[in-house]
């Protein structure tokens, strides 16, 4: 038996500590599928997930929808996750791997340019401790934000109806009145158009 085969057998027989990290803002099924891949890399996996700190995330990636506590709690309640590290380091070091007894780091294979590095996962790739996961097409936090922004008026009037104030929603008095007028016209059209169709059908 070769050394490679022997190592593979050892990995299959013991508990492997796999680490994945990210921002995990507005936790969605794409995140869950990535963590499922991590959990199933080996027969016995203890999955450790690092969630980036709020201050560092805002500095390097920009504003988040959820704060650090909300992001880490969302990850903690994913069934594939055994342990959460918050805040986690933006760039993984040997000291961090040793501290948490990490065997492998899992992420998609594309170079991740950030914090002045061409690829913040270059170190673990070079060390042979990197395992590739696949991204889920069609879903990301940016996609979710885009959907909300695309129908901003609809979601704003929805929350006004649910009792939120214009101050809470960050809109002016004029914007609120304009939205309510649009909503009134829209509701009126829903009632008038079917009525006109019924009259037309009767006339025929």
Automatic annotation (TrEMBL):
Key words, A-Z: Lipid biosynthesis, Lipid metabolism, Nucleotidyltransferase, Phospholipid biosynthesis, Phospholipid metabolism, Transferase
Database matches in Gene3D superfamilies: HUPs (3.40.50.620)
UniProt-recorded name of the protein: choline-phosphate cytidylyltransferase
Annotated family: Belongs to the cytidylyltransferase family.
Organism: Tetrahymena thermophila (strain SB210)
Lineage: Eukaryota, Sar, Alveolata, Ciliophora, Intramacronucleata
CDD domains named in the record: CCT
Domain (Cytidyltransferase-like) ranges: 19-146
PANTHER family linked to this entry: CHOLINE-PHOSPHATE CYTIDYLYLTRANSFERASE, CYTIDYLYLTRANSFERASE
Pfam families per UniProt: CTP_transf_like (PF01467)
Domain of life: Eukaryota
InterPro entries: CCT, Cyt_trans-like, Pcy1-like, Rossmann-like_a/b/a_fold
GO MF: choline-phosphate cytidylyltransferase activity; phosphatidylcholine binding
Enzyme nomenclature, EC number: 2.7.7.15
Record bears the keyword Metal-binding: no
């Amino acid at each position: 038996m070769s050394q490679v085969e022997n190592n593979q057998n050892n990995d299959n027989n013991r508990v492997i500590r796999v680490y994945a990290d990210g921002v995990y803002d507005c936790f969605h099924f794409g995140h869950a599928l990535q963590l499922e891949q991590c959990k199933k890399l080996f027969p016995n996996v203890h999955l450790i997930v690092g969630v980036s700190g709020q201050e560092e995330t805002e500095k390097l990636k920009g504003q988040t929808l959820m704060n650090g506590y909300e992001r880490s709690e969302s990850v903690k309640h994913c069934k594939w996750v055994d342990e959460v590290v918050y805040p986690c380091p933006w760039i993984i070091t040997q000291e961090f791997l040793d501290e948490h007894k990490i065997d492998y780091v899992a992420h998609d294979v594309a170079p991740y340019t950030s914090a002045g590095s061409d690829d913040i996962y270059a170190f673990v790739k070079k060390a042979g401790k990197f395992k590739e996961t696949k991204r889920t097409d069609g879903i990301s936090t940016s996609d979710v934000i885009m959907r909300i922004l695309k129908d901003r008026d609809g979601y704003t009037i929805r929350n006004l109806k649910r009792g939120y104030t214009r101050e809470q929603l960050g809109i002016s008095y004029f914007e609120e009145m304009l939205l309510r007028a649009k909503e009134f016209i829209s509701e009126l059209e829903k009632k008038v158009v079917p009525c006109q169709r019924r009259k037309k059908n009767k006339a025929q």
